[in-house]
Amino acid sequence: MKILLLNGTIVGTKTKSLLDEIQTYISKLHKEYDTTLIDLKDFDMQFVDGRPVDQYNEDMQKLIHEMEHADAYVIATPIFQGSIPGTLKNLLDAISPLAMRYKPVSIVANGGTLQHHLVIESQLKPILDYFRCLVTPNYVYTHTNHFSADGELIDEDVHHRLEEMTKVFDQYIQMSHRI
């Protein structure tokens, strides 16, 4: 079972900190889970313009391949200007809608205001619904105050919510095997 942990931004460290925590919780669930963390800042991304996959650079081809061959996903995103980052949307635009069909997805996000959690509901979930993903109902939204000045997650409630989300994610993975 290949689980892709996707950091959907090229700036900041908070979403990667959240994925690191989730990776720890996943490792406690099942040994057969193979997690891969993809941090978009480590790739030379190209603007998706509809050309065939083999005409993109090596990094874009690798990103597309990793996305299309994963069995489940945890997507982490910051909220910028009331929206998901263009880098995340650009990558999702490159993926075949069939590639993520009926695959489990959990979402974690971070923003500067408490109201930005609505971006998950109004933007990211509709995109994932288009892909027909099995989106877990309990996403985790964090705020700047949940982190130390160094970007370390310091809020115990958030730790508990991440652990609970990971357990639900595991149930969705088990359920997806029956589809």
TrEMBL record:
Residues 1-143 form the NADPH-dependent FMN reductase-like domain. Pfam families: FMN_red (PF03358). GO terms for molecular function: oxidoreductase activity. Keywords: Flavoprotein, FMN, Oxidoreductase. The keyword Flavoprotein applies. It is an enzyme of class 1 (oxidoreductase). Its EC number is 1.-.-.-. Gene3D superfamilies: 3.40.50.360. PANTHER family: FMN REDUCTASE (NADPH) (PTHR43408). This is NAD(P)H-dependent oxidoreductase. It comes from Halobacillus naozhouensis.
